[in-house]
Write a structure and sequence with these properties.
By secondary structure, the chain is α+β, with helices and mostly antiparallel strands. The chain has eleven helices and ten strands.
């Protein structure tokens, strides 16, 4: 692909969008860029191949494939190639919600992060394709793709890998719950599967899933009961409750309504289940 840069038309209507693109492009080799006063818009750069260096806010950071760097408006910076070619795709953007969406993902300043690249790059390729085909409503299409890119980026910058590692600590008990939903389960029994105290298990569930362990169990039992209603269409509600691990039909009905907003009977009627 040849290097290209597209400028978006930012009129009064476009500027009213929550986020909007000011320019987007691709360089088959990015040359040195020195901005002593920064850039007026936010910028997202993703390295495709080669290696470069970013200097920003007192740091000097090497950036290569799998790295992306965000630059905030008005922040002095320098970036330069350390190899040739240094291949980059980028988008400049602004809008009243731009900083807020980044902050949602914990991005509050200029910096570098490891990213899962293809998903994010596909949004930039989509913008360039829309510009080349002179697609009607180009600025709106840019805005939609940019919004999607920023949400995906924010999710990656939040440290989802760290969350996954935390979730691994609960994996044994989650598997145990799934395998034993059809019978009574106690908090102590669940704690024993991971070798921790019931109190500590509650702390883990609250921190990682924002739920108490038995709330999670009931939520999974309700999900199981819905699947059973579809599979066992002629089975009575009381039997469905027992198959899903609820000892008392009245408690099952209360929990079902808590998590779905309707009774089991209403759920069956809504979905045409006899």
């Amino acid at each position: 692909m040849e290097s290209k840069m597209i400028f978006s038309k930012v009129d009064e209507q476009t500027a009213e969008l929550p986020v909007y693109v000011t320019s987007v492009g691709y360089w088959d080799h990015q040359t040195e860029m020195v901005r002593a006063e920064g850039f007026p818009d936010f910028q997202y750069h993703q390295v495709i191949s080669g290696e470069g260096e970013l200097q920003v806010e007192g740091s000097r950071i090497k950036v290569g494939p799998g790295n992306a760097f965000i630059l905030y408006p008005g922040v002095p910076h320098v970036y330069r190639p350390l190899s040739e070619p240094w291949e980059l795709a980028w988008v400049s953007f602004n809008g009243r919600e731009a900083a807020r969406i980044l902050a949602y993902g914990g991005i509050h300043r200029s910096g570098v992060s490891q990213v899962s690249g293809e998903m994010l790059l596909s949004k930039i390729w989509g913008m360039l394709n829309a510009a080349e085909t002179k697609q009607e409503g180009q600025e709106m299409e840019f805005s939609k793709l940019l919004y999607s890119l920023l949400l995906d980026l924010s999710q990656q910058f939040t440290g989802s890998q760290s969350h996954d590692r935390q979730l691994d600590r609960l994996e044994p008990v989650l598997r145990y719950i799934e395998a034993n939903l059809n019978r009574p389960l106690s908090l102590k029994e669940l704690a024993d599967t991971t070798g921790v105290t019931p109190q500590y298990l509650c702390l883990l569930f609250k921190k990682i899933l924002n739920l108490r362990p038995m709330m999670y169990v009931n939520q999974e039992r309700v999900n199981l009961s819905k699947a059973l209603m579809f599979k066992e269409t002629g089975t009575r509600i009381q039997e469905i409750a027992q198959m899903a691990g609820f000892e008392h039909p009245s408690y099952f009905s209360a929990q079902f309504k808590r998590y779905t907003g309707m009774s089991p009977e209403q759920f069956k009627q809504l979905h045409g289940l006899k």
